[in-house]
Amino acid sequence: MQNANGTPIWYELITGDPDAAERFYSAVTGWTYRKPGGGLERDYRIVESTEDGIAGLMKAEGAMPRGWLAYFAADVDDDAARVSELGGTVHMGPMDIPNVGRFAFATDPAGAPFCLMRGFSDEPSRAFEPTTPGHGAWNELVTPDQDAAFSFYGSLFGWQRGDVMPMGEAGDYTFIDHDGSMLGAMMNTNGNTPKARWQTYFRVPDIDAATSAVTENGGTLVNGPAQVPGGDYVIQTTDPEGNFVGFVGARRS
């Protein structure tokens, strides 16, 4: 059974240096990697965690923007048309990826990039499995207009506004409800993040060990560790190339 529409089913890092990215993320998360079959010409690597493919590393070509992308389960052709109707922009596709699925690359009305995807396999994706180390744990949209964002994604995927956590001058941190579970949250753009974007957080077994691994392997600690509701701790970081990535986990010491 495939994942419900609006569920994150894949993550992808577009990077100018896949070898350096491999080393960094392996040190922090324990990920392993493999090359896909099918004779793909570009440099693409499958990220594996707990023997599941949960993400990809793709070498950036030309002016491709660097950073993490989230792929959401969708009826790709219909939903790509809906993206345009709702004020977003489809930049690529819909098109097939041989032996993988159908996808489209889009931006929401505020300019945050994301992808629509439907895999050819009936097996559900485990990319977003918040309690499993190495897997996607949280999806955070930074946007200048949360009302407009909820209107867009609510119409597209059926997401609903969940509980609100006031953040003082930073505004509200509003949880995203998806079929009764929390997929992530929305927050306002700010001086540190002036452009709309999706921010991905991955689960780690020990947040302090992950923090040390980030700084020891060329990354930068931006914020944290900070405790969040439920008892976990999060860190916000950038990898050696400067791409934002977050990690969430327990404090063991």
From TrEMBL:
Residues 7-119, 132-250 form the VOC domain. InterPro entries: Anthracycline_SecMetBiosynth (IPR052164), Glyas_Bleomycin-R_OHBP_Dase (IPR029068), Glyas_Fos-R_dOase_dom (IPR004360), Glyoxalase_6 (IPR041581), VOC_core (IPR037523). Transmembrane segments: none annotated. It holds the Pfam family Glyoxalase. This is VOC family protein. It comes from Pararhizobium mangrovi.
